[in-house]
């Protein structure tokens, strides 16, 4: 299907499946098209994409896929990996205008800081931050604690402690103690 005046034409299904597979291969990453780069303000949309956007974006998308694979995003439904954050950080740090500057983390990027001031993010759920092993240890420890607290002797001890606290006004004694300590 030919490109006319820089506009993409609709593709028929028959043409899609009848064309050789090599036609759909992407150019080698980080390889800009040969020839003199055109003036970005006067060139066609296709030339702008080929010379200005794709040489930067395609390596970023490849790095994104490698990182997503490392983070095991393709193995489960939920993950702590946020692709847009990774791509933002990658593109910012690989910007040719920042060639001699050091690596900047996502939340240290100026425009990200400004955005997050007005649009704070909700905290990441604990289920995404813990590994399966850490989560299982946490669940098991809560379960063991619950089972121990259900024991009749432990219940009796807890009732005795509660009664003792109430009789001796322990909370007031502790408050007085800390007031004295702060006054010193």
Helix content: 55-70%
Give the number of helices: 8
Largest sheet: none
Low-confidence segments, given as residue ranges, are 1-30
Q: Globular, elongated, flat, extended or rod-shaped: what is the shape?
A: elongated
What gap, in angstroms, lies between the N and C termini?
Answer: 86 Å
How confident is the prediction overall: mean pLDDT?
82
How many separate domains make up the residues? 2
**Which oligomeric state applies?**
single chain
Pfam family, one: IQ
Organism: Picathartes gymnocephalus (White-necked rockfowl)
InterPro entries: IQ_motif_EF-hand-BS, IQCK
Protein name: IQCK protein
Question: Can you give a write-up of this model?
Answer:
It comes from Picathartes gymnocephalus (White-necked rockfowl). There is one protein chain. The protein is an all-alpha fold and about 180 residues long. It folds into two domains: about 45-125, no CATH class; about 130-184, no CATH class. The protein is built from eight helices and no strands. The longest helix is centred in the first third of the chain and has 26 residues, at about 45-70. The radius of gyration is 30 Å and the shape is elongated. Mean pLDDT is about 80; it is low at about 1-30.
């Amino acid at each position: 299907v030919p490109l006319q005046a820089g506009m993409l034409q609709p593709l028929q299904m028959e043409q899609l499946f009848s064309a050789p597979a090599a036609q759909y291969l992407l150019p080698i990453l980080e390889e800009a098209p040969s020839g003199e780069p055109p003036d970005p303000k006067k060139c066609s949309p296709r030339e702008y994409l080929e010379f200005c956007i794709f040489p930067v974006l395609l390596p970023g998308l490849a790095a994104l896929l490698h990182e997503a694979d490392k983070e095991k995003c393709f193995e489960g439904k939920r993950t702590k990996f946020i692709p847009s954050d990774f791509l933002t950080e990658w593109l910012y740090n690989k910007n040719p205008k920042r060639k001699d500057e050091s690596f900047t983390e996502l939340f240290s990027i100026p425009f990200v800081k400004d955005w997050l001031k007005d649009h704070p993010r909700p905290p990441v759920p604990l289920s995404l931050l813990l590994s399966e092993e850490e989560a299982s240890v946490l669940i098991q420890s809560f379960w063991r604690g619950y089972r121990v607290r259900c024991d009749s002797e432990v219940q009796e001890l807890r009732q005795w402690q509660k009664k003792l606290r109430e009789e001796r006004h322990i909370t007031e004694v502790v408050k007085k103690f800390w007031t004295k300590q702060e006054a010193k």
